[in-house]
Structures are given as structure tokens and as C-alpha cells.
Amino acid sequence: MRAYVFRRSLLALLQCLVVLVAVFAVGSLLPGDTADVLRGELGTPEQITALREQLGLDEPAWPRFWHWLGHLLTGDPGHSLTTGLPVGDDIGRRIGVTLLLGVPALALVTVLAPLVGTVSGLREGSRVDRALNTAAVVLHAVPEFVLGLLLVASVSLAAGLLPATAVGMDAAALRAQPAVLVLPITVLTARHLCDLARQIRAGVAAERHGAVAEHLRLLGLRERTVVLRHVLPNALGPAAQQYARCVEGLLGGAVLVEAVFGFRGLGDGFVEAVQNRDLPQVQTYALLFAGTAVVVNLIGDLVAHRLAPRREVTA
Fold this sequence. Notes:
Blueprint lengths: L1 H28 L4 H6 L5 H11 L5 H13 L13 H36 L4 H15 L2 H15 L12 H6 L5 H27 L2 H8 L4 H39 L4 H10 L3 H29 L8
Helix pairs in contact: 1-13, 5-6, 5-9, 5-11, 6-9, 7-9, 7-11, 9-11, 10-11, 11-12, 11-13, 12-13
């Protein structure tokens, strides 16, 4: 187990480094830079050149990358090229908004997906199973931004039941008006709830009819004991990895959901940084997203390995 943890942790660090290098390389290859964005079409070539020198954009790419990475290792991700403010302060202002969306969505997925998946798997082929599977397939087929627009059109604009947007609201204002959070949390939850519930359903159905479960029943164990002690632990092993991907997907989904509902969270900040060609911000956001994804996938792999260990055989 220790060797497995060490290998996975080392792989996680390498993945973060690859992401950083890839993001910096792609950002450097994009047409234009922060100086072009700030000066716009009205700026003269002399003004753009002077601003580029002022921002240090005239230096070679790799020295700028290592300079930024060195500061990052000391806990300082640098300053925004467009605003001049510390990148950490910008992330600190936005992360509260994203957490107000992500944490409730994750809590709903954590509670509802095992319940729905287990009920559906234990009643395989029943009306309940068919109804739940149909709802999951339909919801999964609808992209998040389409579902968001449909909910805004039907629930907010047509019925007038819930607010349609959170434009101009910070984390404190959102906490004071929780009704604004209902629709975006619903959109964030839907797809990942379907994915995880279907994974658990498949695992429960397979383990319930497996040879081990049948053998335990022949030994006289009650069905409840077979389900709780064998079926669920073995079904939740692969589901732990899917759960990690759900956490990762919530970050990616936040970009679309925040755009649809006008939230000023991390997703909105990342899009804005890309539009401004603000590499210190882009790199820091990319590291935050990639680091979170790598950590939760690492935890998911370790949990899956613990719940359903596989003996490694070397030739």
C-alpha cells in the first residue's frame, strides 16, 4: 500500500508540472499579449512596445516561467499584469462564490447518488429502476449550459419563481439571498449525480448477482448482511474514482454555470484572465484547477484501492 501511495503521489506531482508547462507554452503561443489587450486598437506600436517592456513581456518565455515558478514555491503567485493586484487576492475574492455553488452541489451528489444508485441496483429491472435510469439518461444528455438556459427560461422568466442571475453579487450578498443559488446548484448537481448514480447502480447489480454473493447466501447469511458487507463495499470501490471525477467536473462545470448565471467566481476569473492574456493569473488558476483535480483523483484511487485492493503481480 505504501509503495502504491508513493507512486501515485509522484505521478500527481509530475501531472501538475506538466500542466503548468503546457499552460505557459500555450499562453505564450496565443496571438497577442497583455500589452495588446490593454492598449487595444488605439495604441501605437511605440506605446505597446513600451508597455511590453514595462510588464517584462519582452523577456524570453522560459526565464519568465522559472521566475514565476520560483515565486510560486515561496507562496507568492505574483501580480496581475492587467490590474497590478496580487493574484492571490483576486482568487481569495472569487473562491467564496465558487464554494457557495460547489459545496452544496457536492453534498447533494454525495447523499443522493449512493441512495439512487443502490435502490436502482437492488431493484434491477423494476419500474423504479427503469424510471431512474430514464431520468438519468435524459439529464446526462443535456449539456450544462443548455439545462441552465432552460431552467432560467422556465422557472425564472416564465414562472417567476426564482432569480435568474447573480450579476453584481459577491459571496456575502449571495449568502443573504440563497434563492439565487438554487438554479445554478441544480445545474451543477444534475450531470454528476447521474454519472455517479449509474456507476453505483451498475456495481450493485453486478455484485448482487456475483458468485461471492451467491455463496454467502448459501452459507445462510441474510440478504441485508450480504448487501451491507459485500455488495456495497465492492460496488463503491470503482464509484470512489467516479466520485473524484465528479469533484473535478464541478470545477469545469463552474466555468459554464457562472457564465450562464452571472457569478463572479473562479470560473469567471479564469475566463477573464485568458481573455486578457494575463499569464500570471492564467497559470495560477490552471494550477489551482489542476492541483484540485490531481488531489481528488489521487484520493479516489487510494480509496478504491483500499475498498477493493488488487494484488500486483510482477513477471
